[in-house]
Amino acid sequence: MRTPFSVWLATARLRTLPLSVSGIITGNAIAAKDDVFSVTVFALSLLTAIAFQIISNFANDYGDGVKGTDNEDRLGPERTFQQGLLTAQALKKGIVISALVSIALALSLICVSLGWRQLLISLFFLILALAAVWAAIKYTVGQNAYGYSGLGDLFVFLFFGWVSVIGAYYLQTQTVDLSIFFLATTIGLMCVGVLNLNNMRDVVNDKKSNKITLVVLMGSRNAKYYHYILILISAVFLYLGMESAGGIAPAVSFLISLPLLIHLFQVNKIKESKAYDPLLKQLALSTFLISLVLFFIFSIYR
User: Which of 84, 147, 154, 282 could covalently link to 139 via disulfide, CB atoms 3.0 to 4.6 Å apart?
Assistant: First the structure.
């Protein structure tokens, strides 16, 4: 018999957390290269990103559940609302509590990093935090959920890529570096790739449920071509970003890009939607591991 704690833990979907912190790790990696690094800021950044992801997971469980998108035809893992383990009211409370926790963490992060020294920039980051909460909830919740209108890819790119990486770097250094944009684009595109695999897996059920994703709009065949473009461009930006580190970093970028090329061959062979599921997890883990490699490389080559 499941305990309430185990049910909420399942709803938080811990397997999604490594991808959610990849941008934070990458932004802090470049800060480490520049010899500007605070462990406290890094830790608070990670906790804030995790809190945002948990909001999103609770909201997805609720939003897709009440809309009927999570049903017996869905190929992904069963969610707690779908299984009847949590009510809609309980999930609403979970969303509110996790949103309050994430805002508290974001405020702590902003105060520790910026304080009153840069009031306008602190206000800007607070607005970004509130926007992240809104984006986490509105992906599937409400009549105008943007995840049901083909805009999920854009928001994932912006928040998992640019906002996460550039924001994490700025909170450490209070500056902006050109390599940040390259690597923010890399992480953003790879995260969009994870979403695209998810949507290719679920395309049949999404069509039935009137969930309009880019895969539904462009069709499964074109979605594969779109996926190839996402991954190949992310590999190019990875090289450009690591070139700024010098030393062996550009060569390392080639080595860590090889699994991405293998991934594309695997995607090309897929014939059935269910077969995308293991590749989805593989790409999410690859993104996380690349961020760790970046942290290691940039910490050494300063």
Answer: 147
